[in-house]
Formimidoylglutamase (Pontibacter lucknowensis), 324 residues
Amino acid sequence: MYKPTAPGTWKGRVDAADGEEGKRWHQGIELLNLTEETAPAEADQAIAFLGFCCDEGVRRNQGREGAVQGPVALRQAMASFAWHLEDDTALFDAGDVYCTNQNLEEAQKQLGKKVHALLAHTYKTIVLGGGHETAYGHYLGIKQLLPQDKQLGIINFDAHFDLRSYEKQPSSGSPFLQIADDLLADDREFNYLCLGIQQYGNTQKLFNTAKDYGADYVFAPAMQVYNYEALREKLQQFIAMMDVLYVSIDLDVFAAAYAPGVSAPAALGIHPEIALILLQEIISSGKMLALDVVELNPALDIDNRTAKLGASLLYHVVQQWSQV
Ligand SMILES: N=CN[C@@H](CCC(=O)O)C(=O)O
Ligand SMILES: [Mn+2]
Ligand SMILES: [Mn+2]
């Protein structure tokens, strides 16, 4: 269910004549094997990628399968990024958790264990999905690190609430209701802010569930750069009440022109620019503990456009997160 990344996986352009100045991510990233006892991160700033290779959530949610290839495509899209990280920063690839035999529940538990191993050893964790069922596994790892008196804030860039019932079975449509119920059972608050919601993409039932659980949200049409001050204000108010933030980026929040490679593309989805600006706000708070990028379906992508968008957002996340 877990495999470390094989040497040679990260490959790309080499500017040999430029020496250290020509360095790219594939030449700087270090492989981390989580089957062995995890050692504390030695670098001041250690950022680790962990893949969740899973189609089962999307399959159960009547979606279009292919998210299992998400981590592979995101790594490829990141490999040739120019290296501009400070000397105190180290970048790691901690391998992949696989969903086997359609056993989503077990795969999520395994993901939680690996996330916990990374966070407990001071790695800043970035999970590469997988469908949005990735979020519940990610959360299972985060919650073990969360002191009882700390408020967890969840910020989800998504066209969808993903608050579907999991009574029959969990899926990519249910992770945030699972998280909510888990937090509430533990006498904690469910603080959930969804950015980029499509009214046409969520039934009345989902809006009612969002209301019942006190979820806050911004509709996709309001996610515009001209509306930045109002968005910033809302975000800052949310962040101010939280101690720790978990951020999830569902690539289907973006307009299909930018993100065709997802199970449920949004023709009127948001522009990447506003997400980038808001991500910068979030990271600069210094409260972000973990982040994931989910729902990339490389089989439906066009010229790796969606993979490159996810990867480029991660470039900026890594660049900024390593400095806070
Ligand atoms: N991960 C969640 N996905 C959406 C899919 C919507 C659709 O297929 O149209 C959801 O469940 O709401
Ligand atoms: Mn989602
Ligand atoms: Mn979505």
Remarks:
- The pocket of manganese (II) ion (ligand 3) is lined by residues 158-160, 250, 252, 295 (CB under 6 Å).
- The longest helix spans residues 104-120.
- DSSP finds ten helices and ten strands in the chain.
